[in-house]
């Protein structure tokens, strides 16, 4: 097959250049979307009389045959076809002759590419949203089963205050809820049909863009032809949403790596998500959690790559835009797989109650409540903070906890301990007291779970 633009050129493209120029190696995965766009375009051409109904019907029938043959592996692609669009058109023309050559009437590869990628975008982002829903459902289930269970809450990777496992898991829920909202928002902006924009300025043919919009399932036709063929904002926005979400995945994975370690022993990650050592028989390595952290970097790279590709491109179409697909494809595959793996890992991970209790008994996590108790008895908080800090320092010097300090020791720090009362500073008491909206008390965690389940059920509907 000769190139589609050979009427203008005398010499063929050099072999190395042809290979460098081609995108068929990766954009062939768009074949289904490409054929959907061409079927809608052919139907519109026939309906508007730009080509005959008979020609339109023959084109559509042949395209459906090609779709089946590609799916069955009966068609192979080569670099000389350059991209999936030319490959499908070549096959179509080979099967039905001159009628196939009429398919590209009133269409450019510029708007054709955008149709394919936007269709792919809408379908794959829907699948990712469904995976996020499954992840959120799993988090709710795990949180509900652990809303009474205590665990250490950290700041600066140091013991801070006791919280419940359910409360901690619900923090994850909020992360991924925002990811869902960002992705849904990006989908809304991407839901525009670029078909009919031509190369950059529309077409002089009497096309019906509303018809193709309806056939392809888009919300509306793109408003400006020049913007429609040169816009890649929706891909950048997707990559940004994916990067943020993968950062959340990485944060969860990071905690699982820490908590699974011999130093913490808070959790036992299921064997299905770990590997052993080739040398050390005792090792059980959290490789899947570590790999989830590592996968985040490639999505970040895709975002930076696309921002860099687009920053110096004038209107309208530029060949640079061919570089949009690989970052998009990779981010789609990476994000979707990571969400699925994370969900399964969360559900199968067990919390180790005995080990967690050891940590709950250390670290002076009741210090804030100790200071609050003094404040409620009339001492300004800054003074209370200082007093309790001095008590902590004394305990550290003696290697003991608050309960081990005698009244004489407290009086030596501040004479007001003569009349001050020290409340219940147990981890359970501290957690139950935090019933403020958004707090860690089991009753409040239960409210959060119910609210979030109602929100998620609304999304599912």
Identify the notable features of this structure and list them briefly.
Fumarase C, Chain B, domain 1, Fumarase C, Chain A, domain 2, Ribonucleotide Reductase Protein R1, domain 1, two-stranded parallel ribbon, 62% helix
Which secondary structure elements does this structure contain, and how are they paired or packed?
Blueprint: H1 15-21, H2 24-27, H3 31-48, H4 53-71, H5 84-96, H6 98-101, H7 109-145, E1 150-155, E2 158-164, H8 165-190, E3 192-193, H9 209-216, E4 220-221, H10 225-230, H11 233-260, E5 267-268, H12 287-310, H13 325-348, E6 350-351, H14 353-360, H15 367-376, H16 381-398, H17 407-413, H18 427-433, H19 442-460
Parallel strand pairs: 3-4
Antiparallel strand pairs: 1-2, 5-6
Helix pairs in contact: 3-4, 3-7, 3-9, 4-5, 7-8, 7-13, 7-19, 8-11, 8-19, 11-12, 11-13, 12-13, 15-16
